[in-house]
């Protein structure tokens, strides 16, 4: 049992001593080269500008503020209400 504890202690000390080894050397960071396949897959996942158009709408967090603004501009109000968990976990 003492050998296991001593062995683990030595390993921990060696690892602690090696942390930061070479940290004083200045090396510029290099970005990895991205493959064309990666760029293609990334563009499939990221939303395009048309899919982000909802961000341009002046959403109101309060129903009252939305109703007041709609009355000033003579516009309709769309109210979305929900009861329960947004993922259906109720």
Furnish the topology, listing elements before pairings:
Layout: H1 2-18, H2 36-45, H3 63-73
Short description:
The chain has a domain at 59-85. The protein is built from three helices and no strands. The protein has helices at 2-18, 36-45, 63-73.
User: What is the approximate shape?
Assistant: elongated
Q: Quote the distance from N terminus to C terminus.
A: 52 Å
Task: Note poorly predicted spans.
Answer: none
Mean pLDDT: 79
How many helical elements? 3
Helix content: 40-55%
In angstroms, what is the radius of gyration? 29 Å
Broad structural category: mainly alpha
**How much of the sequence is in beta strands?**
under 5%
Largest pleated sheet: none
Question: What's the number of extended β-strand segments?
Answer: 0
In N-to-C order, the SSE pattern is HHH
What this model shows, in words?
This protein is mainly alpha-helical. The protein has a domain at 59-85. Helix content is 42%, strand content 0%. The chain has three helices and no strands. It has helices spanning 2-18, 36-45, 63-73. The radius of gyration is 29 Å and the shape is elongated. The two termini are 52 Å apart. The mean pLDDT is 79.
């Amino acid at each position: 049992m003492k050998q296991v504890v001593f062995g683990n202690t030595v390993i921990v000390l060696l690892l602690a001593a090696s942390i930061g080894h070479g940290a004083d050397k200045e090396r510029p960071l290099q970005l990895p080269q991205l493959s064309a396949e990666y760029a293609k897959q990334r563009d499939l996942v990221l939303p395009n500008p048309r899919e982000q158009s909802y961000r341009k709408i002046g959403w109101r967090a309060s129903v009252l503020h939305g109703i007041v603004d709609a009355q000033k501009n003579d516009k309709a109000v769309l109210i979305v209400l929900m009861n329960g968990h947004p993922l259906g976990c109720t």
